[in-house]
Amino acid sequence: MVANTTAVNSHVKTTDSNAYAGIGVGVVYPGGTVANITAVNSHVTTTGSNEYAGIEGGWVMEEMDTNTKAVNSYVNGNKENFGSISNDQLLCQKADLRVLTANCSPKTEFLDALDFSNSNACPVNAATVSTAAQESTAGTAAATVSTGVIASTATTASTAAKESTPTTASTAVSASTAATVAATVSTAAKESTAAVAAATVSTDATASTPTTASTAAAAAATASTAATASTPIKINDTETLGKIGRHPAYPLNGTYQQTADIDASQFHQSIGDEWDHFTGQYDGKDHTISGLSGCFVDTLEGSISNLRFTGARINSYEPAGVVACTVNGQVRNIRAEDVQIATLSNYADAGIGGGIVGAGGTVANTTAVNSKVQSFGGSSYAGIGGGWVKDGAMVANTTAVNSTVKTRGYAAHAGIGGGVVNDGATVANTTVVNSRVKTSHHYANAGIGGGWVGTGGSVANTTAVDSTVETKHKLAYAGIGGGVVLDGGTVTNTTAMDSTVKTRGINSHAGIGGGWVGAGKKLARSSGVNTNDDIRRWAGVGGTVTDTTALNSRVETSRMNAHAGIGGGVVNHGATVANTKAVNSTVVTSEDHAKAAIGGGVVYDGGTVANTTAMNSTVETSGKLAYVGIGGGVVLDGGTVANTTAVDSTVKTSGKFAHAGIGGGVVYDGGTVANTTAVDSTVETSGNYAHAGIGAGVVYDGGTVANTTVVNSRFESKGWDAPHRVGRRSVGDGGGVADTPALDGSNAATASTAAAMGITTGSLLAAGGLGIAGYSTYQWITGYQEGLRGQELAMKPLTRGKELASAAVNSVSQGIQGIRERMNRQSVPAQEPAHEMSSVQTN
For residue 668, what is the DSSP state? Predict the structure, then answer.
């Protein structure tokens, strides 16, 4: 039996699965009894799966008459007001006078020790404050309560309005005195007087000084004015920092200014909590807070700016961030150095700016140096800017240097900008140097910009230098821009320099722009991501990846059916990948059915890859049925690859049935490859039945290859029954090839010379860009270590590197355009499709 339990201003909370919470007891088994449970201004919260919560008990297995009463209390956010406490009118008056005042509000002088936020506790209602008036006889006031002293003289209501009976206590008139006096006057005076009178009564005042109701009201007004005055409240040590939200003179809506560095290693409480939010302003004035063990603020609706954090070590079973656990306000100009955050349970997001950045939230200008953000639970997202960026929130101008973001749970996405970016949220201007993003479980996507970018989420202007994105389990996609880009999500202006994207799981696609660019069911927090292995059944609006540049970078997958590409590993369901440039870069897959390309490894179901340029780059597969191409490894089901240019690049396969082409390895079932140009490039297959071609290795079943231009290039099939042709190896079942000019002899020499001019210029520019990338890395790290303007110093060479890469590509494009003009003037004949078909049949 559990009986006669009263909770005031209390909180019972569980955060894991199969966990039960109640004011009376967690679980009540058959035969158990719970009776006379009362909750006033209290909360019961459960956040795991298969959990139960209640006032009398979390899980009550059989019905019983528990005589439960709740006043202004909440169960999992739902307000509970039931039962009557009219027969217990002195509920709060009978409580420990060191803890509660007569109206159930907490005694302010004990708030620091009690470790909960200062608030108005119970609102004025018939069940609490008004009971004092009911208890008095014939209009007399309730007994006036001072600190530990009950006055023996009662006064009438009219007398109390003029003066109160002086106490003989050694201290000044206490907060409880003011509260009780306020209870005898108008209702309007009750609330404000009880809450703040203590803040205006000096402890040095003489005991004989009477306190009238009007004086208390005036004191309340004075306190309110002081708390919200424009003059900032100075914070210079841990003691004053700990008073914010816990003392009437330091309200949650106040304006604060830090005036010195603070060692917060003994600061074990966040400002505010999940119900009492910080709505004020805190300006750190570029000072440092060191040694935090929890979020600086629990839930932010105000602003925090110009603050540095060092040496924080945060381990939490709830969402956690160095600045705030949840950001619905403004975070600006934050630097975190040697900070480590780890969340340990399911649905516990982690970030430097905020664990969750939600509606109305903005995190701008965040720098993380030598820091680590980790989550260990399922569906627990992790990022530097924010773990979960959602509901129109924005994370902008995030910089990570020598930092790591890792997750270990199921469907736990990770990113530097944000682990998940969805529901109209934006991550912009993310720069990463010598950093790492890694996930270790199923369906856990990873990216620099965002691990999962979907439902209208946007990631723009992402730059990664000497960095790595890696996933280790099945259906875990990886990318620099985004691991997954779905459902109207967009990734634009992504640049990778000396960086690597790799996956180690089955069906785990990888790309620089995005690992998987397509459409899927909406991300459901309760279950992570849709676990349907057949992605072709998913429906929705396609994602978009545009303007992706890879310099001296690598995309790699090592398991079966794990596709790879610079633009995107897989592009489907109406998605678009456009304007992809790869310079001195490599795309490699090593298992069966793992397609690879510069544009997109697999392009199907209305997906489009357009304007792909590869310079001095290699695309290679080694498994069987692992098709490879510059534009697309395999193009089918209405997929389109258009405007592909390869210069001094190589496409090769070594597995059985592993077809290869510049435009596409295999084009069929309504797929289209158009406007492909190869200059000084090679297509090579060495496995049996592995076909090689410039436009495509194999075209059939309604596939189309059109307008292929070949200059001074080579294509070869070394395996058994693996012939090769310009345009395609074979055409069958309605496939079509048209307009496939090849330059040889004198024409080839002329064209090659024209191309060489552009290529030479472009190669020099590209090499300069790569040198700039290395210099940029040095500038970043040196600048931050020395406390200089590292970001400003490095952005100039970084930007210059990108400009040089673009100039290289433009130079080659001009060279190719010159080639085409020469071809038109010299009237180079196109090969006849009928003749090609005849030679194929003969072979």
Answer: E
Q: How many CA atoms lie within 13 A of 811 on its CB side?
A: 18
pLDDT number for residue 326: 97
| Per-residue model confidence (pLDDT) at position 33 | 86
Exposed/middle/buried for residue 750 (C-beta within 10 Å: 0-12, 13-18, 19+): middle
* Contact in structure between 2 and 24 (CB atoms under 8 Å): yes
Amino acid symbol at 375:
S
Predicted TM-score of the model (pTM): 0.69
Q: How far apart are CA 285 and CA 260, in angstroms?
A: 9
- The burial class, CB within 10 Å (0-12 / 13-18 / 19+), for 257 is middle
Give dist(CA 673, CA 694) in Å, integer. Answer: 11
494-538: per-residue pLDDT in tens?
Answer: 999 999 999 999 999 999 988 999 986 544 443 333 333 333 333
Question: Given this model, what pLDDT does residue 182 score?
Answer: 32
pLDDT digits (tens, 9 = 90+) for 660-672: 989 889 999 999 9
Q: Which run of H or E residues covers position 187?
A: helix 187-200
Nearest of 713, 593, 734 to residue 665 by alpha carbon: 593
Beta-bridge partners for 307: 287, 334
Q: What is the SS3 assignment for 28? A: strand
| Rounded alpha-carbon distances, angstroms, from residue 652 to 590, 617, 640, 743 | 12, 11, 21, 22
Summarised one tens digit per residue, pLDDT across range 5-46 is: 888 878 898 877 778 888 888 888 777 888 888 888 888 988
CA distances from 261 to 238, 292, 661 (A): 10, 13, 62
Q: Mapping DSSP to helix (H, G, I), strand (E, B) and coil, where does residue 556 land?
A: strand
Distances in Å between the alpha carbon of 835 and those of 156, 362, 716?
A: 115, 63, 20
The continuous run of DSSP H or E covering 722 comes out as none
- Is 88 in contact with 56 (CB distance < 8 Å)? no
Burial 127-163 (b: 16+ CB within 10 A, else e): bbbbbbbeebeeebbbbbbbbebebeeebeeeebbee
Task: Give the rounded distance of the alpha carbon of 744 from its chain centre.
Answer: 53
Angstrom distances, CA of residue 170 to CA of 97, 148, 216: 16, 11, 20
Residues 6 or more apart in contact with residue 94 via CB below 8 angstroms: none
Residue with tokens 């002293």: 149
What tokens were used for 118?
């200062």
**Total number of residues shown for the chain:** 843
Neighbours of 832 (CB within 10 A): 10
Letter for the amino acid at 420? V
The dihedrals phi and psi of 178, each to the nearest 5 degrees, come to -60, -40
State the DSSP code for 723. Answer: -
CA distance 436 to 465: 11
Per DSSP, the three-state class of 698 is strand
For 148, 155, 183, the CA distances from 128, given in Å and listed in that order, are 20, 21, 11
Structure tokens at 145: 């309560």
For tokens 């924005």, the residue is 394
Residues 6+ apart with CB under 8 A from 552: 497, 498, 583, 584, 585, 770, 773
The alpha carbon of residue 442 and the mean position of all alpha carbons in its chain are separated, in whole angstroms, by 18
Give the phi and the psi of residue 580 in degrees, each rounded to 5: -105, 130
d(CA 383, CA 448): 9
CA separation for the pair 452, 447 (Å, rounded):
8
| CA distances to 219, 501, 720, 811 from 578, in Å | 66, 19, 36, 19
Residue 424 is encoded by which pair of tokens? 């109209």
**Measured CA angle at 481 (ends 479, 482), to 5 deg:** 60
The 10 Å CB-count burial string (b at 16+, else e) for 553-582 is bbbbbbbbbbbbbbbbbbbbbbbbbbbbbb
Angle at which helices 790-826 and 745-785 cross, to 10°: 170
Q: What are phi and psi of 718, to 5 degrees?
A: -95, -15
Residue entry with tokens 């020099």: 764
Instruction: Quote the tokens at residue 110.
Output: 């004990």
Whether the CB-CB separation of 21 and 12 falls below 8 Å is answered with yes
